[in-house]
Amino acid sequence: VRQKGARKAAGVRGQMSTFSKTQPGYYGELGSVIISQTIYDLFPPGDFQPASTLPLTPTEFIQRVLVPEAALRLVMDDMRQARKEAITTLRDSAQYGVAMFPDDHAE
Known about the structure:
Layout: H1 6-10, H2 12-17, H3 28-42, H4 58-79, H5 83-92, H6 94-100
Helix pairs in contact: 3-4, 3-6, 4-5
């Protein structure tokens, strides 16, 4: 956001360039949905002071900052890994997560 500005970062091209960094690793799409919903329940976007997440909207902040950070912290706890190792695990296991835990909208 600092390098490209809020509009470019929030646009499709900006989102695609950071897509791999926001994936929840081996938790997959289903894990992403569960983490997202839990965070939305705990921290509804409407409860944020708008200025507190600038230049992102509260919803963008949840999806692009809080969800990836929660996934990272879960991996750190699950695997007893340091932050740097957990980031590698998240990135290396993203394809596995998508294949094993797709969001099929069944529930």
